Amino acid sequence: MVKIPSDRSLDSTVGLLRHGYQFISKKCDQLQTDIFETRLMFEKTICMRGVEAAKVFYDTDKFTRKNSAPKRIQKTLFGQGGVQGLDDKAHRHRKQMFMTLMSPARIDDLVTLTRQQWRNYAQRWTQADRIVLFTEAREVLCRAVCEWAGVPLPEAEVKLRTLQLAAMIDSSGAIGPKHWQGRLARQQAESWIKDLIESVRAGQLTASANRPSNSALLVIAEHKNLDGTLLDPQIAAVELINVLRPTLAIGRYITFAALALHEHPEIAQRIKANSLHADSPSVEWFVQEVRRFYPFFPFAAARVKQSFNWQGYTFPQGERVLLDLYGTNHDARLWENPNTFWPERFRQWDEGRFNLIPQGGGDFYLNHRCPGEWITIALMKTTVEFLTQEITYRVPEQNLTVDLSDLPALPKSRFVMSQVKSQAEGQVESQFEGQVENQIAQT
Ligand code: HEM
């Protein structure tokens, strides 16, 4: 047996905070390995990257998700008792509940609602001096996903609920006051959603034209555990929030997509020239490259179920293991020039379950791979179509730096747009011209 290489430091938490998304890859490069053992938050942790590591990480005989997420992440991002911490039969049963929400017809419904919201917001933007795309995207997505999920959202509550759902994501890597804001936001959101679950069960909220029986609120409120009992209302709330919160999180990819369009005007031109609709291959490649290239989830966490050997290394029972999602998406053995933004790489992509893993890998039904991946891609596509064809805008001077030590990361300015004009109103010739003009204005 070979001992797993160790980084020999007493604790690497400071290194993780300093290098953020690149922490595992930098250490792997330094130790010339794809696997090493370290201590994070004073706990022994095995870190690994690459396609072979991903394959073993998603072997459900070898790993458990029980207690794999640190408590501070459970209290903010994930919630307690949700699908993320389940294993085996219980996991597959709960996961099926999420997958029933992801039919092509239901995803189309969400796309339609989101597109409508973008159009409504664009009308308002034309009157504003400038807007922050990231902030607007969260609200657009909050309105769309609540309507889609059958969750009543009075106008007066839109901002509050958007902030609560967003705070759980923003606080996920934070310490101090921001972390406590995230905890409070979760408590408030769980109480809001728990009341709705109870209203469904009491017959006060029922299926209707706007709330089909296969909407998330009704499916989750009525879901039965393997023993035939209903989900505990608190856990049902955690699971419904597991649909609402990450849909708002797509606002981060949307912000990165706008950044990529801005920084690569030649790619924006090609998208504009080749695509009349969101299903065009150039939009698909662009969206996949945004998901591959930009940082979101740094890694996924699990624990060793029972000791086993892999590639000559012993994995001790109970030890925490992190799979480097960002590093695998930037692995030069899988991706030519991984640090170049190049959508065309997806023209001949060798699609696999373990190479492009920004939302986890493996099988949707059997593993913990994100059930929202199709929604994410569909909403990104429709938004890219909206940004490139339905509006024009300028990108004023601002700090667009993305700091890879921020977990989660975003462009510093959150992408400010000015002089937004809606094509629908016939106010401008073309977005494409607007973008080119904008590039010229900036140089
Ligand atoms: C910005 C877009 C998103 C990103 C980056 C993302 C990322 C991820 C990642 C990395 C995982 C964990 C994979 C693992 O542990 O192996 C995950 C799981 C999950 N995601 Fe997403 N996600 C996104 C959007 C969504 C959407 C739109 C939904 C629902 C509508 C969703 C619902 C979930 C759920 C319920 C899980 C837990 C699955 C399980 O434990 O089996 N996510 N996501």
UniProtKB/TrEMBL annotation:
Residue spans crossing the bilayer: none
Q: Which CDD domains match?
A: CYP152
**EC number(s)?**
1.11.2.4
Gene Ontology molecular-function annotations: heme binding; iron ion binding; monooxygenase activity; oxidoreductase activity, acting on paired donors, with incorporation or reduction of molecular oxygen; peroxidase activity
What does this protein need as cofactor? Answer: heme
Identify the keywords attached in UniProt to this record, alphabetized: Heme, Iron, Metal-binding, Monooxygenase, Oxidoreductase, Peroxidase
Q: Does the keyword NAD apply?
A: no
Q: Which family does it belong to?
A: Belongs to the cytochrome P450 family.
* Name of the protein: Fatty-acid peroxygenase
Which organism is the protein's source? Answer: Phormidesmis priestleyi Ana
